[in-house]
Amino acid sequence: MIVEIVILAMIAAFLGMRLYSVLGRRAEHEEEAIPTSRFERGEEDDAPRTITQPAAETAQNERALAGFPPAIERGLREISTADRNFELLGFLEGAKGAYEIVLEAFWRGDKEELQQMCDDDVYESFAAVIDERDEAGIRMDNRLVRIEDVTVHSAELDGKTARIAVRFVSDIASVSYDKDDNVVAGSLDDAVESRDIWTFSRNIRSNDPQWLLDETDQG
């Protein structure tokens, strides 16, 4: 029995290293679901989106875009100019919702949900870890306790592709079980601070309003 526990602990440590590369660094400490309208799917075409924001929303967006370091503000303004529907506060609310949806889908092993939210490379990384976890008989019972901070880390417009990296500081309680429901690692009583930088991208000339997760890193 002791030998089995040691082996399972080694497997959990290995999976933890893989999770580090996929999700970013986890360091101590569930925010309610956030509307994700700007991250939902729609129809695609190559025509620019031309719906004009009301004056009050435009003014609010201008205030939201101000105050960032020059490189970030320049990138955000380029995206806002190219896509008149872009609204930073709405984007950040959607990003928070997407963060929660993706984490919970990953923890429960829901590949279908992940495939809808991520680009191919990120999806394949998540799916590979899920497969390894399943093969090892490891079950995760993680809880997103709260999202403490959400900030824009970088922003750029590369041709038709807008990319915005968002830094999330959140508190996550994590515990892993073996196939017999024995605790392998972690505890739901102790939340751990997680700092992640997730990059979302979207073709601004598409009528599809969804931003896809196309990169993850530690924060």
Description of the structure:
- With 219 residues, the protein is of the alpha+beta class.
- The protein has helices at 2-23, 55-65, 70-82, 88-108, 111-117, 120-135; strands spanning 25-26, 139-140, 143-158, 161-177, 183-203, 212-218.
- Strands 1, 2, 3, 4, 5 and 6 form a 6-stranded antiparallel beta sheet that branches.
- A hairpin with a 2-residue loop joins strand 3 (143-158) and strand 4 (161-177).
- Residues 1-38 and 41-52 have low confidence and may be disordered.
Number of helices: 6
Shape verdict? elongated
N- to C-terminal distance:
38 Å
Q: In sequence order, what are the helices and strands, one letter per element?
A: HEHHHHHEEEEE
- Helical content (DSSP H or I, runs of 4+): 40-55%
User: What kind of sheet is the major sheet?
Assistant: 6 strands, antiparallel
- Which residues form runs of ≥5 with pLDDT under 50? 1-38, 41-52
Overall mean pLDDT stands at 81
Total beta-strand segments: 6
Q: Could you tell me the strand content as a percent range?
A: 25-35%
The oligomeric status of these chains comes to single chain
Helix vs. strand class: alpha+beta
Q: Report the C-alpha radius of gyration, rounded.
A: 19 Å
